[in-house]
Design goal:
single chain, Rossmann fold, 22% helix, globular, signal
Length: 306
């Protein structure tokens, strides 16, 4: 994926999803007061920061005024972000050798999630927001689930009770909440866990593990997917028929295609996407003025009034 030039970025006007989608606006949040943000990449090999999150980092810093020191790019594969070429001042926490995570695609997603949960717990009560792509959304979801449910290997308080990770907002982009589209030749542990009929998917959707349960209610969950994604179907990415606070589905037919890759990188064409959105189980609304994926991610973690 080639990084889009910064000059192609369309400056985002103030407003909220829902209100902004229809052309009205509200006051822009003060970015200097924004919670620290973790970016969690997806399945594959070691990632390059600039190609993976460069557009998002530029948008958050240059367009929205966030301090680079509040951005964290999680490294969970051995060799992730070795060039550290995103932006001076951002953090690159490395969990590729933490706990039971060996930094490869054959590490169970649960073990990556446990290592991430311990990283989040290290913030010692500071509220955190998370932007996650593809499998990174599963890592995030299980980090919070496993901690809240007191699973072995996840952070606990000194009295043995589950730790509070203080995660405020999560948006997942193209995450296979109900599984990936099967592809030939992929047989590593993580990929097999993301198949629709896997044991991982079965456990994720057990009644006690769903986002409708009390353990998940302190977090504002947003799921975004695209009907043009050839790796994760849109319905899987929004976890259709299961609860999340906010769901966004790019319907296709846009001048700019929203693929599995561009759902984490596209900043152009803001307010020009065919988008279906639904909030807190309400009635779905379709618009032709939807936000670009990166702008949507920003609004999802900053707007409390959608």
């Amino acid at each position: 994926m080639k990084r889009i030039a910064r000059t192609a970025v369309v400056t985002v006007v103030a407003g909220i999803i829902g209100a902004t989608l229809t052309g009205t606006s509200t006051a822009q949040p003060v970015a200097t007061d924004q919670n620290p943000v973790y970016f969690v990449h997806g399945w594959g090999g070691p990632k390059d920061c600039d190609e993976t999150w460069g557009n998002a980092v530029d948008h958050f810093v240059d367009e929205q005024g966030m301090q680079p020191s509040k951005l964290y790019l999680l490294r969970y594969y051995d060799g992730d972000y070795e060039s550290k070429n995103c932006r001076d001042g951002v953090h690159y926490p490395d969990i590729s050798d933490d706990g039971n995570n060996d930094g490869t695609r054959n590490t169970r997603i649960k073990h990556v999630a446990a290592a991430f949960a311990h990283q989040l717990a290290s913030h010692d009560g500071e509220k955190i927001d998370i932007v996650a792509h593809s499998m990174g959304g599963l890592v995030t979801r299980v980090a919070l689930l496993g901690t809240a449910q007191g699973w072995d290997g996840f952070p606990k308080n000194s009295d043995g009770s589950p730790a509070d990770l203080h995660v405020d907002d999560v948006i997942t982009l193209g995450t296979p909440h109900q599984g990936v589209i099967p592809k030939e030749g992929r047989d590593d542990t993580q990929w097999k866990s993301m198949l629709p009929d896997s044991e991982f998917m079965r456990v994720l959707h057990l009644p006690e593990n769903r986002l409708s349960q009390p353990w998940a209610r302190s977090v504002d969950w947003s799921f975004a997917g695209s009907n043009e994604d050839q790796t994760v179907k849109g319905e899987s990415a929004i976890d259709i028929d299961y609860r999340a606070n906010h769901k966004y589905l790019y319907l296709g037919g846009n001048q700019l295609e929203v693929t599995h890759g561009t759902i984490r990188t596209e900043v152009r064409g803001d307010h020009h996407f065919n988008l279906r959105h639904v909030h807190n189980g309400g009635t779905p609304t379709d618009t032709t003025e939807g936000r670009s994926p990166v702008a949507l991610a920003w609004r999802a973690i900053t707007d409390k009034d959608r």
